[in-house]
Amino acid sequence: MDKVVASAAEAVADVPSGASMAVGGFGLNGIPSVLIEALVDMGVDGLAVVSNNCGVDDWGLGLLLREHRIARITGSYVGENKEFERQYLTGELEVELIPQGTLAERLRAGGAGIPAFYTPAGVGTPVADGGMPLRHAPDGSVALASEPKETRAFDGQEYVLERGIRTDFALVRASVGDRHGNLVFEQATRNFNPLVAAAGRVTIAEVETLVEPGEINPRDVHTPGIFVQRVVTLTPEQVAAKRIERRTVRS
User: Fold this and answer.
1) What are the pLDDT digits (tens) for 7-40?
2) Are residues 47 and 151 both part of a single domain?
3) Residue 17 belongs to a domain
4) For residue 210, how many other CB atoms are within 10 A of its CB?
5) What is each CA distance from 156 to 120, 152, 192, in whole angstroms?
6) DSSP-derived 3-state class of residue 239
7) In angstroms, rounded to a whole number, what is the distance separating the alpha carbons of residues 119 and 6?
8) What is this structure's pTM?
9) What is the DSSP letter of 33?
10) Handedness of CA 188, 57, 103, 207 (dihedral sign)
């Protein structure tokens, strides 16, 4: 039952090139940055990543992008990452952009064992009708476009069928975790992290504070340990190394 491993490098050692991977975080908040850096050091490539966004050029998933380790991204937001934009527009990266709520529900459905569901989000747009650029050619033309999705009417309203998402691995960052893998996400870090944790077949959590089993009140657990296979305890320096996406101060 003790799921704690000695290091981030050991935790991701069996991630192969070409693996699919869900990654928690929103903007720069709640990103499993230490596990991502361990993947960079490993040299794996051809990754198919599912994440709300890709961080920034020099942080989070942006580090893997910079090294051209990601082949495909499923997400909802390009954000402040100029390298993400450049690789997409020049055909170096395949990107599936979907509505943010649909992405969250696809991850939740996958983690719950639901293969697909109907949603009104995207009906009447290229999300449902197809034709969204997944990959560009070097000259900027569309090399690969999305296919139309199944639609169906319920009670007079049109819905589009979306598939649940399951990935080979999932990486999350938790504020508190115990040796059994039970996780607590503090405030805004409880964004995509619980959804991502459930969607991975092998889920790896980096935790800021490790406690013993029983120290977390069961009603405070956001992700039960049944969903988590490995836990990495962060050092105080790793915990403190957090980025702010846009620092705003008064004059």
Assistant:
1) 999 999 999 999 999 999 998 899 999 999 999 9
2) no
3) yes
4) 16
5) 12, 10, 32
6) helix
7) 42
8) 0.93
9) H
10) negative
